[in-house]
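Query structure, 352 tokens:
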């Protein structure tokens, strides 16, 4: 990421990853190396500010005369002068959080600052499909380097858990925590804290291990509810269908839903396209055998997620697609380790 931000041939970087995957933490770590040479400005979108002109830039533009906000050119010129004064001879680096929730005027100002050479960009988005078209265009033209942040592997989840706990974590406990959370750093942190508070995750002979079935306090369910609330009604319906079914044939989902909604959910990391099941009696590929995080069915593999071209083809030509869709995140199982459930509208989480 630091290399992309310093690359003179680019305007910066676009970091894509689901909620709770660690985008902001990674950005903060990367930007520490720019503190001496750049004036780092944080621009954050939200559901509320997205409905207000210049909502994401409000705290900066509040220092300008109110009349300048009535004209985009005057607002941009005022913002440009303000950032130049604040930078005091240093470069300007804009960290754009929640890029999918920036209002159009803020997007235009941020992009123009980058195109005019007045600032470099680090754009954080949950999904490319939901980001403003201006950011997508910068990426498609090669002016922003796209970096995709994937969930932890089991080994990474074990290392992360040991860092949080300050000591070694048993292999069985690490596997269970990873299986319960799908490798999401946010859910791992919450689940580890929840089990420590409940006395389920305990230190035994210098090793952290599970002393019993996992306990649910409802905190994770609240987070899942909040994430589902951000989805459009059609997208939420798809997630809830897959929460009950576990898997559905692609052609079935294409008949029941809008293909573009499936695109957005897959791009956002909520769904996973699996290869078509082998014909009855056919030998199963070695890569598909064995239990995944939840046991019984293969865990999500990065290579199983189709690219953008494949997803667009799915939307246009469903008759020739025989793959399956599986809900990917969040995928929190109940204590008994059974199939994912939907409780109170929270896909795959225990009812709050």
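Result returned for the query:
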């Amino acid at each position: 990421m630091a290399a992309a931000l310093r690359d003179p041939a680019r305007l910066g970087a676009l970091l894509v990853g689901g909620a709770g995957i660690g985008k902001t933490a990674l950005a903060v770590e990367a930007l520490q190396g720019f503190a001496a040479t750049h004036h780092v400005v944080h621009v954050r979108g939200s559901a509320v500010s997205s409905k207000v002109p210049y909502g994401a830039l409000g705290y900066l533009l509040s220092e300008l005369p109110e009349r300048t906000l009535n004209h985009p050119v005057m607002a941009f010129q005022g913002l440009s002068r303000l950032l130049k004064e604040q930078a005091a001879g240093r470069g300007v680096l804009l960290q754009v959080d929640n890029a999918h929730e920036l209002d159009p005027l803020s997007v235009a100002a941020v992009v123009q600052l980058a195109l005019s050479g007045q600032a470099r960009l680090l754009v954080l988005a949950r999904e490319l499909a939901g980001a403003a078209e201006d950011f997508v265009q910068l990426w498609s033209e090669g002016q922003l380097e796209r970096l995709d942040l994937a969930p932890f592997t089991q080994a990474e989840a074990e290392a992360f858990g040991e860092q949080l706990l300050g000591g070694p974590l048993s292999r069985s406990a690490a596997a269970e925590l990873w299986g319960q959370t799908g490798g999401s750093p946010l859910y791992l942190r919450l689940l580890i804290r929840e089990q420590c508070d409940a006395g389920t995750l305990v230190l035994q002979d210098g090793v952290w291990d599970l002393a019993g079935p996992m306990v649910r306090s409802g905190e994770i369910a609240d987070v899942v509810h909040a994430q589902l609330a951000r989805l459009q009604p059609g997208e939420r319906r798809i997630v809830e269908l897959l929460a009950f079914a576990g898997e559905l044939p692609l052609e079935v989902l294409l008949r029941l839903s809008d293909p573009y909604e499936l695109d957005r959910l897959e791009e956002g990391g909520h769904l996973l396209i699996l290869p078509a099941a082998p014909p009855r009696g056919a030998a199963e590929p070695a890569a598909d055998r064995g239990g995944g995080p939840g046991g019984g069915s293969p865990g999500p593999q990065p290579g199983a997620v189709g690219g953008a071209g494949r997803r667009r083809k799915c939307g246009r030509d469903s008759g020739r697609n025989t793959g399956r869709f599986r809900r990917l995140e969040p995928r929190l199982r109940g204590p008994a380790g059974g199939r994912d459930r939907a409780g109170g509208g929270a896909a795959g989480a225990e009812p709050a």
